[in-house]
User: What shape does this take?
Amino acid sequence: MKNGREKRRSYILDPGLKDRLMSQVFSSKEYREDKYSLYTGDWKRVRAVELCSLTGSMNLKTTEKQREELFRIYLEEFDRLDYDTARAEIPSGRLVLDCAGDEGGDTGNSYGAVSCMGDLASYYIYPSFKNTIGYLEELTGERIPLSYEEIPVTKLDIWECNEEGPGEEYTIRDEKFIESVKGKFAGSEVGTEFYPLDTSIDVYVTFTSENGSEQINVHADKKTVEQIKKYRNTEN
Assistant: This one.
């Protein structure tokens, strides 16, 4: 502006236009360094790392050297990620970094960025990030599933949502049907930034782990949600 002040505006873009623009800028150095402060932040300020996976979350017990190695491996693979792949792949996990506060009195924040400036960016782990996943498995001593296809799901509890509030609730135990849709589930604790999800229903999957029977919330894309609703209508 003429008086030297800065004014910012935000706009809601048509999904098609947004995809075209993101395809052009997603891999650029400028976009990544502006959005993902892991590229430029001080890694030594990260005091803890939480791993959110498809079956839950855990705090990683790491040294500063191990954290730096994790970030290095992650960025090497993230550098090769293009927008089309980010749109097509459901994340297998997410890193949440706990950043130490500034000396001036900032108490710090727990989020996915290193800057400690209120940035809520998340660091998603895609199935194609083989080296990152391998290193995390080395750190945790546990296998990290790439998708719900690898998890023994025994039932789905469905809560349909509508404009008036909670809608119909029902349970699906059909093993064959569950096997046909569970690969499209995205874990709610993991989330997804680019893969399109339909949140008109809440799905809770019950799965078998070494601890017994557990349950976790997931979402799915529009096509999978339509399959679930169609299955329900057919069963009725």
About this structure: The longest strand covers residues 198-209. The mean pLDDT is 85.
